[in-house]
Amino acid sequence: MLAPCPFPPPPAWAHDITAIGVTGTNGKTTTCAFLAAALRASGAPVLRVTTVGSFLDDERLDVEEDHEGFVRALELCRDAGGRHAVLEVTSEALAVGFARAWPLRIGVFTNLTRDHLDAHGSAEHYLASKAQLFLHLPAGGAAVLPAHDPAGALLEEILPAGVTCLRWGRRAPERAADVELIESVASWTGTRLRLGLRGREIPVSLRAVGTVYAENAAAALAGAMAAGVDPDSAAARIAREPSPEGRFQIVASKPWVVVDYAHTPDALEQTLRTARGLCAGRLTLVFGAGGDRDRGKRPQMGRIATSADRVILTTDNPRNEEPSAIAAQVRAGMDGYGGVVEEPDRREAIRRAITEATDAEVIVIAGKGHERTQRVGARSDPFSDVEEAERVLRSVDRAYG
To answer: Cα(235)–Cα(287) distance, rounded to whole angstroms?
Structure first.
């Protein structure tokens, strides 16, 4: 028997808007941004609701970050003539019935890696929660799934009758991609990629920096195609879209300072791989792990962090845990690595990384991205990695912006 759904029924007019849900572990926010940009090729406004806010095209909407605010954002979209809404859908919302309560016509899946096990208890429950988006797609709807990810194959098996499946990503045995990611090359100015569309190629030059964004772009293009958008028009719109705030956001060039939301093992590994590929000098990582969250991923992130030349281990929303205890669990995965120092004060950790850097150095400040608070106990103190980095850069007269 299904548990009661905490979401009220949608208003009758909700069916006037084609709602597209995007879920997965990493890349949801960027995929939503790319997909919303692609849908604007239709000429009508597009609503985008993600962890960085609610937007109608490029305008940030002044709505609350709750269910009532979500409905209000949809209403504003409808009143402006919009007919598409792109929604970042979390595993927690899906686990309690969001896909049952709201008419989502298209579901997009980015990837599956470790995260949120504190909330779900197991990887199986985590995937089962995300699967709700696809189990409840209506006949005539579409699922957009990664061809190269085993989770994509599992989701394809549970699609309801009448749901179309479009695959994206790298070529996989017996699973051809409708949007194939053939090649991607990152530079400090963006990412060049080649996408294959069953017999022809589309070159795309993204403004976002990092090969991981090539995957987000491929998923978004497939999602736009599922919604009926011409692929060439969609690709052109995606190419013009910047990456969202706090996603490999370049703050400075001498030294290179990058702020990234990477707070899972896979995301941190992807971010460091991109940074290493662009790095001509030392690679420094400033990061920590969140308190009151999945403790099992902490040593994994510590191991991944050792790919940097220097690590400044600091706090990242310690919440109700002792920062030193969190740091000890991270360091458990860094056995034998001599390049780590601990600085619990995140502000001081950022200052130290920048002031001790050479011009050729790359500094990655990971974990918080777009966030503007640091959660300590019951407090939410104002804190922005971008603003802190810019403040230090101004104080030492380094090049930023």
So the answer is: 34
pLDDT digits (tens, 9 = 90+) for 326-379: 999 999 999 999 999 999 999 999 999 999 999 999 999 999 999 999 999 999
Instruction: Decide: helix, strand or coil at residue 120.
Output: helix
CATH 3.40.30.10 fits domain 249-400: no
Phi, psi of 265 (to 5 degrees): -55, -50
Burial string for 220-254 (b: 16+ CB within 10 Å, else e) reads bbbbbbbbebebeebbebbbebebbbbbbbbbbee
- CATH fold group of domain 13-240: UDP-N-acetylmuramoyl-L-alanine:D-glutamate ligase (3.40.1190)
Query: How many angstroms separate the CA atoms of 95 and 89, rounded?
Result: 10
At residue 350, the 3 state secondary structure works out as helix
Q: Tell me the pTM.
A: 0.93
Query: In sequence order, what DSSP letters do the residues of 242-272 get, joined into one string?
Result: PPPTTSSEEEEEETEEEEE---SHHHHHHHH
Residue 48 β-bridge partners: 55, 86
In this structure, what are the phi and psi dihedrals at residue 171, rounded to the nearest 5 degrees? -60, 140
